[in-house]
Design goal:
alpha+beta; 3-stranded mixed beta sheet
């Protein structure tokens, strides 16, 4: 009985029967010294607003995905993939510019880039990607590359 004062009411303000003190509504009663509040009313998703992901953010996701798809290192003078994106609602139209080594299987590389870009944008931005256009801006002939670059690649 160390926690009960002489008048019979515990120190936390509740009565012996566990009810809150007189005049305090049950939803505002304390639980372990922390006042309880009524849960906030739920707001419909349409009334909360919308999240908009900027086109340039989606373009960065696409460019990174293209780099992932082209796992093998590009020629020393090859530029990293670059992407431009136009977003309308939840649909992203993507164009990726690449520089690739030649001879190589260009079709397979482009298919891998298309697949990876669409997958990453769908995962990261929750957008539909109906098509990914690929522009091969430059081909780097592997046989004309400096000897140091060829030796490094063969090791």
């Amino acid at each position: 009985m160390s926690g009960t004062p002489p008048n019979g009411t515990p120190q936390d303000g509740t009565r012996r029967d566990g009810a809150p003190p007189d005049g305090v509504p049950p939803e505002a009663a304390s639980s372990g010294g922390v006042p309880l509040r009524a849960a906030p009313a739920r707001v419909a998703p349409a009334d909360r607003g919308a999240t908009r992901i900027a086109d340039r953010v989606v373009a960065k996701i696409a460019a990174q995905a293209a780099r992932e798809a082209l796992a093998e290192p590009l020629a020393d003078r090859a530029a990293a993939p670059h992407a431009t994106v136009t977003v309308h609602h939840d649909i992203a139209r993507v164009r990726v510019s690449l520089e690739l080594d030649y001879p190589s299987d260009l079709g397979a590389q482009c298919a891998a880039v298309r697949s990876q870009v669409a997958l990453r944008i769908e995962e990261c931005a929750a957008m539909s990607v109906p098509e990914v256009d690929i522009d091969i801006e430059h081909l780097h002939a592997t046989h004309t590359r400096p000897a140091a670059g060829r030796d490094r690649r063969l090791r």
